[in-house]
Amino acid sequence: MKIVYEKKIKANEIVITPRPVWKCKTCLFYNKRPSCPPFTPSWRDVREWVKHYVFALLIKFSVNMKNFESEKRDTVNWLLRKESELFKQYPFVFALFPGACNLCVDCDFEKTGVCTSPNKVRPSLDALGIEISKLVKLDYNEEVLYSIILLD
Hints:
The model has no long low-confidence stretch (mean pLDDT 97). The protein is 25% helix and 18% strand. The two termini are 26 Å apart. It is α+β, with helices and mostly antiparallel strands. A four-stranded antiparallel sheet has the order 1-2-4-3, covered by helices on one side.
């Protein structure tokens, strides 16, 4: 995992619609991970929530798809560390995962319905209805992940 860029954006540029949430329903992790629907807030609630932020950090990560799970795990752990660092400056900072949570190699939530790290899990961009394609031009040939950290 490598950070391609971190870009501060205005939070009102973040487009939130039901379309990504509906796309989540076709994913293998739907109803299986705590970062995914139906365990996440509704896109309408998210739209209202994001209105209370002025800025966000848009991050682009390059990942090696041959080691995708490991690279993504590195990405979500980096996001959590970054969120922790930013807390000193932005008390309501909140990181969002680029897809389903994969903090644990074997997800207990899938087996038992109980997450072993509930304080670390963050919702995925899609689960919240965030249309990342409204913020960046997606190139499906790139091996990248995008994420957002809401600042203040």
